Amino acid sequence: MTSHEIDYKIYGEEMQYVEIELDYQEGVVAESGSFMMMDDGITMETIFGDGSKKDEGFLGKILGAGKRILTGESLFMTAFYNDLDGKRNVSFASPYPGKIIPIDLTAFNGKFICQKDAFLCAAKGVSIGVEFSKKLGRGLFGGEGFIMQKLEGDGMAFVHAGGTTAKKELKTGETLRVDTGCIIGFTQGINYDIEFVGGIKNTVFGGEGLFFAKLQGPGTVYIQSLPFSRLAGRVLASLPKGGNSKGEGSILGGLGDLLDGDNKF
């Protein structure tokens, strides 16, 4: 194996975290901001990109890390190593309510494609790159699904999804249509494209966007019920407008605001 062979355990239900068990000199790489806790003996190192290629040279590391800018991620990642004898643990937490999904890349022929913000952490040696769309339509209308990340190698990787998750096994030619933001990821055998919803009423009054993703088998698809963009949109829509609201939008709350000394007539 080119990737480090790690053990893990996932804790929690709604706000999960994954605990990675590292033997001596084993390592794991993670996105900045996902670290939760670690045992004594674990050392932390900031690296360009994912550090999967040791002999690519400084320029190669710069170019590889630069691709991450296209996915909205940092140029740098953080690597954690066990420098002491025996087993040591390091943990990484979910950024918002949902599930952590373990991805064994050996079970998917060494490659898994996921949303640009889904990756959480992976065994040292796993390559975290960019999966570019080859079709113009995806680029213009794909939304969150345009530029995706690709996880390559023979180790374990972990992705995060919002809400409840679904795993769909598509047979050859079988098709699944999904909101672009609800895609977590899929295997390399899946044919992925963007389709127009169609119909004047659907377009004007549907409220579901003009396009959705068309996924065609064979392969495995992971779906999330609550993408972060949808969660953020609902939170922003519920915020009080024009000042603080003490009544959570209720009629009594509005009366309370009228009686508040801060309001002037």
Task: Please tell me about this protein's structure.
- It is a single chain.
- With 265 residues, the chain is of the alpha+beta class.
- The chain has one domain: Mitochondrial biogenesis AIM24 (Double-stranded beta-helix), CATH 3.60.160.10.
- It is 16% helix and 40% strand.
- It has five helices and 19 strands.
- The protein has helices spanning 57-66, 136-141, 200-205, 228-238, 251-259; strands spanning 7-11, 17-22, 27-30, 35-38, 42-48, 76-82, 88-93, 98-104, 111-114, 119-123, 127-131, 148-152, 156-162, 165-170, 175-178, 183-187, 191-196, 211-216, 219-224.
- Strands 5-6-3-10-13-8 form a six-stranded antiparallel sheet.
- The longest helix has 11 residues, at 228-238.
- Mean pLDDT is 79; it is low at 136-145 and 199-208.
How does the major sheet shape up? 6 strands, antiparallel
Annotated CATH homologous superfamily: Mitochondrial biogenesis AIM24
Mean pLDDT: 79
Structural class: alpha+beta
Could you say what the CATH topology is called? Answer: Double-stranded beta-helix
Query: How large is the share of residues in beta strands?
Result: 35-45%
* Fraction of residues in H or I helices: 10-25%
Tally of individual helices: 5
Low-confidence stretches: 136-145, 199-208
Reading the helices and strands in chain order gives EEEEEHEEEEEEHEEEEEEHEEHH
Q: What is the domain tally?
A: 1
Tell me which CATH architecture applies here.
Answer: 4-Layer Sandwich
Terminal CA distance reads 73 Å
Question: For the CA atoms, what is the radius of gyration?
Answer: 22 Å
Kindly state the number of beta strands.
Answer: 19
- What is the strand arrangement across the widest sheet? 5-6-3-10-13-8
**CATH structural class:** Alpha Beta
Shape: globular
